[in-house]
Amino acid sequence: MENQPILSVRNLTKKFGGLTAVNNVDLDIYPGEVVALLGDNGAGKSTLIKCVSGVHSPTSGRVTFQGEDVNFSNPIEARDRGIETIYQDLALANNLDVAGNIFLGREKEKSYLGGLIRSLDDKFMRDRSAEALESLHVEIPSLKAPIETLSGGQRQAVAIARAVYWDAKLMIMDEPTNNLGVPEQKKVLELINALRDRGVPVILISHNLPDVFAVADRLVVMHRGQKVTEKKISDTNSEEVVQYMVGALDDTRKAEVVG
Amino acid sequence: MTDGATKNIKEPGKNASKTILLSLMQVWAWVFLACLVLAFIVAVPLVSGSSVSFLSVRNSQNILVAITPVLLLGLGQTFVIISGGIDLSVGWVMSFASVISALALRGAFNAGLPLPLAVLAGLAMAVVGCGMIGLFNGVIIAKLKVPPFIVTLGTSFIVRGMALLMSENTTVIGLPRGVRNYGNESMMYYVRGDGGGFYFFQKPELTVELLRRMDRIITYPVLMTALVVAVAIYALKRTKFGRYTYAIGGNEVAAVRAGVPVERHIIKLYVLSSVTAGIAGFLSMLRFTAGSAVIGDPLLLSSIAAVIIGGVSLFGGSGTVVGTVIGALIIAVLTTGLVMLNVPSFWQFIVVGAVVILAVLIDQTRDIIKNKIGSS
Ligand SMILES: Nc1ncnc2c1ncn2[C@@H]1O[C@H](COP(=O)(O)OP(=O)(O)OP(=O)(O)O)[C@@H](O)[C@H]1O
Ligand SMILES: [Mg+2]
């Protein structure tokens, strides 16, 4: 890809006390690509993306977003810059309706008597939410029902619609298909494709290799905090990826041996 | 692209009977209240003689006067519990407010202020004094992450000590005589029977005979409570403040991630709860023309009962102000009705307790049915 990366991470290290969770990792994400982040449990995937999304601040290293060095002190700052993160749980308030969630923390208000009295502009928020869902070809039975009545996949769609509505520049999804049934997983993959079509790059953390091969353009494998390889989907296969995930293959080691 | 998600939409009619049951359970408190009122309308004249009527102007006004403190305590509590917290200090905060507003009113009046201003000084003292207690609760809960149950339990004892200290362990009396009017008069009067009728704004000059037949409709404390209720309904339903309250109760982590100022909001909620308790204390001071350090404590559990009967989930995330109003009405109607039926007073407690448990059972069953419909 000849264009500039939206996100680049350089020499990023994150230590928790004596434990090095992420060790000197480089990562570039370009517009409109889906990059899968793979690795065994505890490999450091979540920690790496939390350093990007403002949950953690890196022990050392640099994060550049849209050409500027960034050092977010909390997830809200990152989100205001257009980095949206989606988790399987904890991302939505289940007792609120779809619009309540899409606009949470950024509600649209109407004001009366010169701003003395303000009320929520529910109609505006509901209409925009319906549009955002429609643009992703998602259908939700009732926009007014609390989202606890929705299926896991529909909730994931609401979270994605929120990111789309607020014009996300980078979407990070940490195991978004975990705990979903098979048709729901398919739906989430379709949504990831829809994001790519809109030019929104996606970092996808997943343990599900078929998913990754179905949707990603590139994959990055981590092992014990280090990035052990980075490959185009078309240049690799599941067996090879598994070898990297368990540490049998390691490009950093190969580089040492060769050079 | 329309598979998966859309196919899960339930077919209408499939769960019709369950849906009807569900909607009935949604509004059971209304139905229950209506049945209670009807039952008492029929039973009271039978038991106590045909001249006594349950829904008389006098009796309905008595019920309203009786529920104002419980309702005010319950209002703040409604917001706090929806957010996933609890405020156990409101009973003693109300007592504290009764004492300090009496002291402030008396002091201001003795210093030469006209009565209306002295009354305002009493109100200001109650609001500010209790607001500080709420701030204390809120900061410790939100910033230091101490569980609300523990913080407000502790505060409850502290405020109890302060209220007893400031009242010197007795009732604060010696308030100007006119205070009575603020606490007991109204803008509307109704005189029953011959030569009677409605009177507005001014207490009618009447013969002793007629005065005995006069009732005050919506006394000032009831009016003020009604205003607070209206504001609370609006705030919870229609504003950001209410939306954040639900969001925090539903999923605090999600609220934080979405940029909701969660800590600040939690602090505001405890201030709100203390302030409504403060208003309750102030109004009871006006009503009894005295500050009392023991007035609020017995009302704490009644107010929580009203909130629960009204359908607010103790786990947070759901409930309404109107529900709490219904809950408070159910308690007041039950209590008053049983008294009019000459039922010994301990039965009131037993019945109210049973209704609280019944309410939670109904809510739980409703959730189970809802989930069944949702997943089928
Ligand atoms: N907040 C924390 N404090 C201390 N150690 C942590 C913290 N977060 C993660 N770790 C540790 O860092 C290492 C990497 O964890 P991380 O969650 O990034 O792994 P992961 O690749 O996301 O694993 P999984 O696939 O199980 O989600 C683990 O050893 C973990 O125990
Ligand atoms: Mg992880």
Please explain how this structure is put together:
The complex is a heterodimer of chains A (259) and B (376). Chain A has 259 residues and is an alpha/beta fold. Chain A has helices spanning 45-53, 75-80, 98-102, 122-135, 152-165, 182-197, 209-215, 238-246, 251-258; strands at 7-16, 19-29, 34-39, 60-65, 68-69, 83-87, 109-112, 117-120, 170-174, 202-205, 218-223, 226-232. In chain A, helix 4 crosses helix 5 (152-165) and helix 5 packs parallel to helix 6. The longest helix of chain A has 16 residues, at 182-197. Chain B is mostly helical and 376 residues long. Chain B has a single domain (60-375), classed as ABC transporter involved in vitamin B12 uptake, BtuC, CATH 1.10.3470. Helices cover 70% and strands 4% of the residues of chain B. Chain B contains 15 helices and 3 strands. A 3-stranded antiparallel β-sheet of chain B has the order 2-1-3. Chain B starts with 15 loop residues before the first helix and ends with a helix. The chains are: A alpha/beta (259), B mainly alpha (376). The site of adenosine-5'-triphosphate has 11 residues of chain A, from strand 2 and helix 1.
